[in-house]
TrEMBL record:
PANTHER family, per the entry: ARYLSULFATASE FAMILY MEMBER (PTHR42693), ENDO-4-O-SULFATASE (PTHR42693:SF53)
GO molecular function terms listed in the Swiss-Prot or TrEMBL record: arylsulfatase activity; metal ion binding
Organism: Gimesia alba
Superkingdom of source: Bacteria
A Pfam family annotated for this UniProt entry: Sulfatase
Protein name, entry field: Arylsulfatase
InterPro entries xrefs: Alkaline_phosphatase_core_sf (IPR017850), Sulfatase (IPR050738), Sulfatase_CS (IPR024607), Sulfatase_N (IPR000917)
Length: 476
């Protein structure tokens, strides 16, 4: 009888183990997307940086894939809208600091697929800067598909001191799940620590079901100020958010901020490993645009000036590192073109979501590459750029990994001419270059007109083409 009971217990336990293994096998993979603010390829060791120490990001690249041809737009909001909606900016971008709440985001898509979702970092999408309808609505992040949030600039701008706004770093005013956390509430605390702690707690609480974490970091946007590793005994009030006047001191703070960003990346990876989800989690690291123009860096023996706001390589070429233990090939460097419209489509493929009529058509999934397969890489990426903000001017171009063609006909061999100072007129490029020029010209003939070159924040002309045809059927 005892032997029979032992056999029954053994069979029952084996069944439970088998069911648990099957459950883990069927579970959808987690996704963590980390996006740095105003810092690009010349600032990360795995890309050839000489001035910075980024061991955690470099480790992800060493263990996974480093993409050498990922492209954003030159400025934060156009990039974020493009990334979150999977659409080229000609379809839906109208104002700086604004995501139309009618737009479907990757958060909503993954939420509908059964994911627990969280966002922490920089929001700045309510339309505060032009007083959009509903700009004071602190539920916008919820409505955009996030179950939880811890964000800066939801209903208060950085300059809105009288109503509780302020800077993002020391003693920052934040909004968390609908609750306003004032400067006093966060006195002496460091914004990036608050936000990353929030995400670590979210991962801990949701480790048993698929989760999506979107971390649009406030690092390393100016003001360039000390981090917890460099501030020492100085006061940690809002006054600590004033950057020094000297160029050398600003650069020193910027370096410290890049290094601290890397430290936070390591912190998130460690949390995923701690909860036993490293083999079931895709971790992506990228940036929204080029480095601030105040910053000069040494890269692969060259001096690189930050290109934020411009359509040169220094403004639109961003890092993309992907690590998914057991899936991504170890130490792979891929030249495949990746556009910011591709993230939505890739996440849908990971979640097993079949894209429908309410989903974007502009992206191409790079999930096959994440699994070590060739995939169907793009032939080109498109930048349709008019931020309607500040001194920045509109532009439109298509490019492959080597050549770039602007709407006005300018043509550059980018790796050999990062500053785009040598326009190659017809016949001046190589045979291969001229062939690529013709291909890019054909692509430009299928896209909407270029945005107005002059288009500041008060512009009355803001054309969009939401129903423009599918250009080359990127979704295949």
């Amino acid at each position: 009888m005892k032997q029979l009971a032992f056999i029954l217990i053994f069979v029952f336990s084996a069944g439970l183990l088998e069911a648990d293994a099957a459950s883990k096998e069927m579970r959808k993979p987690n996704i963590i997307l980390i996006m740095a603010d105003d810092v690009s390829w010349e600032c990360f060791g795995s890309y050839g940086a000489e001035d910075y120490k980024t061991p955690h990001i470099d480790a992800l690249a060493k263990q996974g894939i480093r993409f050498s041809n990922c492209y954003s737009t030159p400025l934060c909001t156009p990039s974020r809208v493009k990334l979150m909606t999977g659409k080229y900016n000609f379809r839906n971008y109208t104002h700086f600091g604004y995501l139309n709440p009618k737009e479907k985001t990757f958060g909503q898509m993954l939420q509908a697929a059964g994911y627990k979702t969280a966002i922490a970092g920089k929001w700045q999408l309510n339309g505060l800067y032009h007083g959009a309808e509903g700009h004071a609505d602190n539920t916008r992040p919820f409505k955009a598909g996030f179950d939880e949030y811890c964000l800066w600039q939801v209903t208060r701008t950085v300059h809105d001191r009288k109503s509780g706004g302020g800077e993002r770093f020391w003693s920052p005013p934040l909004e968390q799940n609908g609750k306003y956390l004032s400067v006093k509430d966060n006195q002496g605390k460091y914004g990036p620590d608050i936000m990353s702690d929030f995400l670590c707690d979210f991962i801990q609480r949701n480790k048993d079901e698929p989760f999506f974490v979107y971390y649009p970091s406030v690092l390393v946007h100016n003001p360039f100020v000390p981090t917890p590793d460099t501030i020492g005994d100085a006061p940690r009030t809002q006054a600590a958010n004033k950057q020094p006047k000297g160029k050398k001191a600003r650069k020193a703070n910027f370096v410290a901020m890049v290094n601290y960003l890397d430290k936070i990346v390591g912190k998130l990876v460690d949390k995923v490993e701690e909860v036993g989800q490293l083999e079931n989690t895709l971790i992506l690291f990228t940036a929204d645009n080029g480095t601030n123009v105040q910053i000069t860096s040494q890269w692969n023996g060259q001096t690189i000036h930050g290109g934020k706001g411009s359509t040169t390589d220094m403004g639109t070429h961003v890092p993309l590192v992907a690590y998914w233990k057991g899936h991504t090939p170890k130490g792979k460097v891929l030249d495949d073109l990746i556009d910011f419209t591709d993230f939505y489509t890739t996440f849908a493929a990971m979640a097993g979501v079949q894209l429908g009529k309410n989903d974007p058509i502009d992206g191409r999934s790079f999930l096959p590459q994440l699994n070590g397969q060739p995939g169907q890489p793009r032939d080109w990426v498109l930048c349709h750029y008019q931020p309607y903000w500040g001194r920045f001017q509109g532009s439109q171009y298509v490019r492959d990994g080597q050549f770039k063609l602007y709407r006005d006909g300018r043509f550059f061999n980018v790796p050999q001419d990062l500053k785009e100072s040598q326009n190659l007129t017809t016949g001046q490029a190589s045979d291969q270059g001229e062939q690529i020029r013709r291909m890019l010209q054909q692509t430009l003939s299928t896209v909407p007109p270029a945005p107005p070159i002059q288009g500041g924040k008060d512009s009355n002309t803001r054309p969009v083409y939401p129903n423009w045809k599918n250009i080359v059927n990127p979704n295949d």
